[in-house]
Amino acid sequence: MSDRPAPTGALLRATAPDRLPEATADHLRRHFAAERVEVLVADLALRRLAPLLDTAGAELDPAALRCLASQRPSTGSGPTGTRLHLPLSCWGERLGVLRVDLPRHPDPEQAEQLRSVADELAVAIRAADRMTDRYRQAQCLQRLTMAAELQWDLLPGRSLGDDRFLLAGQLEPAYDIKGDHFDWALASDRLTITVLNGAGEGLDAALLTVTAVNAMRNARRCGADIVEQAELASDALHTRYGGGLHAATLLLEIDLVGGWVDAVDAGSPHCMVGRGGEISQIRLEQQLPLGMFGEARYEIERFRLEPGDRLLVVSDGVHAAAPRGGPTFGESALFTALRGTRLQPATEAVGTVMRDLREFHADAEPEDDAVTVCLDWRR
């Protein structure tokens, strides 16, 4: 190091939201003698990394992709010395990778300082995302449909976690989403998760989803439980569409201390629990999809998680996928895919399930979009 680094957080807060990568690179060159710096952001499907500084195109840097998947820093040989890959993540949300080329291997103190720089940059990018299009443009490897644009703006993120749990969700196809959606919110020891399968196609389906999700958020932010959230959303949809369009939705509220799960099953998303080496479906009583009838009323069912359990929710675009009219993915391949992910963290497991779903379709075009949400309860 040429001199003691200034606090990175203060530096980034004083930087324009679209200039965070440049400010970080200058900081690393000045204080760590970095020879080359690249900020790589993950694309929407979490399969490629797009550079923000040398914007030649998306990269298939295997070490960077491994860092993104494992969320662990790695050190290897670089063009002229040592190359570091540092995960960019914020509250469990995997944003990308910071790649730094140094003339020599960092000592433990320097390595810790570099990890702190990556952490500060991740928080800054997450905060700046609403104030500049730069990071979203890099994430999109092709143009989004209008429906997909609405859906991605509505999402809470792609992962969330702390020492109690790790939660992840994934939408497919990333660039042409119709009406499927997931949402979550953490409040003290309560975690609310919703998975929604909206009716219709294209922009109509997206607008239906926007209405339902915002109605549930409105109720939740006023302190309402999941029954009231479901009822407000159902009334809003019925008022708008008169029962012509509706949204099959699963609402869950999880006690992160005791493991109790309150559930309202208002449609088609399926809920499963992985315990040890076994996967079993949680059988819930299906109630009316949101918006099908006016003044619909809902009831809570309860089940309990045990420490180390994995909770999985999939939309009908996953469990009911039946390319060319053959067996459904849920009947023939879903449980095998879920068992195969048992040793992966939730953030990797959702991608593996979606990859298996794409392979299941082979050359057939999916008839529906798909959602997978995975929660690991660590307690």
Task: Describe what this molecule looks like in 3D.
- It is an enzyme of class 3 (hydrolase).
- It comes from Actinoplanes oblitus.
- It is a single chain.
- With 379 residues, the chain is an alpha+beta fold.
- It folds into 2 domains: 130 residues, Beta-Lactamase; 236 residues, Phosphatase 2c, domain 1, CATH 3.60.40.
- 35% of the residues lie in helices and 27% in strands.
- It has 12 helices and 16 strands.
- It has a 6-stranded antiparallel β-sheet. A 5-stranded antiparallel β-sheet has the order 2-1-5-4-3.
- Strand 3 and strand 4 form a beta hairpin.
- The mean pLDDT is 91.
CATH first level of the largest domain: Alpha Beta
What is the count of distinct domains? 2
**Spatial extent as radius of gyration:** 22 Å
The percent range for helix content is 25-40%
**What low-confidence regions span 5 or more consecutive residues with pLDDT below 50?**
none
H-E string: HHEEHEEEHHHEEEEHHEEEEEEHHHHE
Give, in spatial order, the strands making up the sheet with the most strands. 6-7-16-15-12-13
Beta-strand portion reads: 25-35%
Distance between the termini: 40 Å
- Named at the architecture level, the CATH assignment of the largest domain is 4-Layer Sandwich
- The overall average pLDDT, rounded, is 91
